[in-house]
Amino acid sequence: MEEVTENKAKRGLTLVYTGDGKGKTTSALGLAVRAAGRGKRVLMIQFIKSPDRTYGEKITFEKLGIEIVQTGIGFTWTKTPEEHRVALKSAWSFTKEKVQFGGYDVVILDELNNALAIDKFPVDDVLPLTEVIELIQQRPKGIHLVITGRSAKEEIIACADLVTEMKPVKHYYNEGIPAVKGIEF
Questions:
Q1: Tell me, what's the pLDDT at 182?
Q2: Residue 150: pLDDT above 90?
Q3: Residues 115-149: pLDDT tens digits?
Q4: Separation between Cα atoms, residue 71 and residue 45, nearest integer Å
Q5: Rounded CA gap, 92 and 95, in Å?
Q6: What string of DSSP letters covers 68-120?
Q7: Residues 6+ apart with CB under 8 A from 182
Q8: Phi, psi at 159, each rounded to 5°
Q9: Backbone φ/ψ region at 74: left (φ over 0), alpha (ψ -120 to 50), beta
Q10: For the whole model, what pTM was predicted?
Q11: Closest among 20, 26, 78 to 48, alpha carbons compared
């Protein structure tokens, strides 16, 4: 049994952090720090967050030498659907290139689930779920993928080796406390 388990880990695992609770990206950030501490080459691609804003994780990752790239343009209501579609298409092209040829040990696809779940405008032609599944299944041996975001598609869950669902029990948003610098961003 030990050999089978070791072979699975060597092929590369797919971890999914999903659900309506807080902590999906935070879990992926912790995993990135742990992997980098073990000498793994880590890339985090953020599908929704924009490079026009400053995020605590970007500041820290730059200090730690962990690569992080924001490919999004913010919340879906902040720009036109076509602007989001262009950003998603570019992000997906970048992601495929980095996973296939980037030489990373761990690639985190932050908020990919959110992007795939957009229903305010079409996304499947610029971020096809079938291609996401192909990438998961056919990536080079040894690459671990971490996929975060609400509303994970059943097809992604079926491909995963680990799925953790964050469930809200209590949140300060409900008390009128807005996003806190250093906690949410």
A1: 84
A2: yes
A3: 999 999 999 999 999 999 999 999 999 999 999 99
A4: 7
A5: 5
A6: EEE---SSTTSS-HHHHHHHHHHHHHHHHHHHHHS--SEEEEETHHHHHT--S
A7: 56
A8: -80, -20
A9: left
A10: 0.92
A11: 78
The C-alpha atoms of residue 64 and residue 125 are separated, in whole angstroms, by 36
Q: Which two tokens stand for residue 152?
A: 């994970």
**Pairwise CA distance, residues 42 & 104, whole Å:** 6
CA–CA distance, 175 with 181 (Å, rounded to integer):
17
d(CA 152, CA 165): 9
**Each residue of 57-110: pLDDT tens digit?**
999 999 999 999 999 998 878 889 999 999 999 999 999 999 999 899 999 999
Tokens of 146: 């971490």
Report strand pairing: 144-148 vs 106-110.
parallel
